[in-house]
Amino acid sequence: MTQKSTILLGFGLHANAHGDDLDWRGFWNSLVGRLDGAAEFLTLEDRFADPGRDGLDAILLANWLAPRSRDIGIIAGAPLNFVEPFHVSTAIATLDYVSAGRAGLLIQRLDQHRSRDAGRAIGTLKGFPAVDPLSLDSDTLAATEVVRRLWDSWEDDAVIRDVASQRYVDGEKLHNIDYQSADFRVLGPSITPRPPQGQPLVAFGWTTEGDLALARAADVVFVPAGTGFAGVAAKLRGEGQGTRPKVIADLQVRPDVADVAELVAAAQTSVAQGAEGIRLILPALYRQIASVVDALVPALRADLLVAQPLGGDLRSRFGLPAARNRYAAAA
Amino acid sequence: MSKKQIILGAQFPGVNNFTVWSDPAAGSQIEFASFRHFAETVERGKFDFVFLAEGLRVREQKGRFHELDVVGRPNTLAILTALASITNHVGLIGTLTTTFNEPYPLARQLATLDILSGGRAGWNVVTSPGAFTGANFRRGDHLPFRERYERARDFLETARSIWQGGDFHIRSPHFDIAGRTGAGSLPQGAPVIAQAGDSDEGRELAASHADLIYSRHGTLEEGQAFYADVKQRLAKYGRSRDALKILPGANFVLGETLEDALEKQKAIRLQQVSPKNAIVFLEQVWNRDLTAYDPDGPLPEVDPDVAVEQLAQGRAARYDNRLETARAWRELAEREKLSIRELIIKVTGRKQFVGTPAQVAEEIDRYVQADAADGFVFAPHLTPGGFDEFVEKVVPILQERKVFRQDYAAPTLRGNLALPETWQPVAKAV
Ligand SMILES: Cc1cc2nc3c(=O)[nH]c(=O)nc-3n(C[C@H](O)[C@H](O)[C@H](O)COP(=O)(O)O)c2cc1C
Q1: Measured from the CA of B53, which atom of ligand 1 is nearest?
Q2: What is the pTM assigned to this prediction?
């Protein structure tokens, strides 16, 4: 192909990013003000049970940011092993309503160390997985499936407000999901009607080879830029079970280097290797954000690598098809 | 002596038959625009707080989804946090169960709401109906009644330890958890705690741990009895009578004249209790399929089925003794010559203030000054405009009477409710 296609630009944040700033609201308000219109999406990782640095609940923070932003997609994280999939499903559906279709869920599979902290913070409970990698992986897959099925558990036209039959809802259009995993069972249906996108976007951050099944349960996968990127991207797009997720390259912006040209080159390399977008990770966000938004973003745009944010619902911006409801009778 | 100041809470019309959906003015129950309109209106009216109820499973009747009432709601904490973003003064109280949550995640979420709202978070602690709702959750199980309250108390104390920030290490009958949280020193010290249980256990929990009670005792006499009962429980915990505010749930109907308002009330009650819904209510007591009965006809002659299995699922169970309730209802229906629908309209009503704006304001004031309440949690019958007229016409009269604020006096919900400014550890009962 000769035509140069454009890519998506996002920022990878976490919900403790305010650091030492005591004015948490002021920090997040000005941050989202800077990013809205400059980037297509942001991810908000949840620092659940990170000792002393656990910050804000990411999905709630996302719901606070949504009404004070216009265009930016907001992908909020949840450590599915340690929370109730039912609550996560309704909270992301709510984010989708509040943001008019800009919502996504970042599936967080915590590493072994953080998982142990998280396990201690909730205690040993029936229905939650044991803290070993295999149990955590399969539980994350199960919880993701539950979250997704609950989003579909109401058909779009379930609310009928039919005065003649005195019925508000058509019970035939609500569906039990009745999902049984190794550790738990969820019956459904959701208490929240199907969100505007049907299926809010589901994203996942790749760390190791063992992540393939989880990555293929997602719509979008973040993969570290660099030597391994091309191989992972190929694997994700290859034959096999699950989705063919969109692949986004994670680019670390080192705090000491303000070399825009170098970063643009790195972005170009990722694109050449098949990235459909890049996510910028700023380790010292507080100090870096101004220069990144004022210098790097315009440079990426000037190079036509990055399009002006598109707005509209988040799935379509990532080139994902409209979500079909698995429970709706085939038309 | 100066008059008591009235507390006003605004319940978003919820998942039950009081929310009228068949009216042309009834808007979306789920779009954010509805919540925005609702919250902005009551904040304009200087209300103390927005209030959301909770129900974590779609209600069922005779093994099928209950179709006649409004159903579908957002996630409580998520929508309250979104509302925190577009309001500046009004409190945000969510009903959240201690049965299908765990202390660390929930305490952290409430801390998040308190921080992002600048100190306006509140938590109505409920103990939840059991196994039916449990089917949607990992834990799944259902605790016996007494244990649910023990867990609630334990949960609250655990949450309070977490809200103090820093290290927490709890070993209690219900929890064995540890960690370190970074969100210390919340704007309010701790979110405002409300409690809704009505049993002796529920009232004790309120007296020892809560700032507010949301009660269902709305009439003058019942309200006064409840008020006296709960307030006298406070001393035992070393708390003053002002430390716990009592707020019955209530409703209002406004008209040009009293007759006009009564006429409207009648029409609203008919919308709330549709013919089919009248039968559903009757089935909750009879515990039998009564679809063959005429809603405009007399009550069934057959007696209730007293089997344990309930036809109605997902509602707060209110009819402990079905045979007794059926007997009383029959008697009432015969005495007043009521059809099934007329009876249900009569016996399922909530406290309603009906009249002109001046009459309604005066009546609310009278109840509060007579210690039937410290204020009310009003649930209008329409989404999202149910408070428009109340804010425009009733609130100014309350303000003129000097029993309701002209403007918010404090930045926090705790402050506006005139509760102790920061949370004080509660002394254990002796
Ligand atoms: C006025 C009132 C409102 C309530 N609202 C809710 C609610 O929104 N969600 C819920 O799960 N339980 C709700 N409950 C149920 C209580 O938390 C409690 O489980 C129930 O009343 C049984 O306990 P009790 O016997 O102490 O009243 C409510 C109870 C009352 C009295």
Answers
A1: 8
A2: 0.96
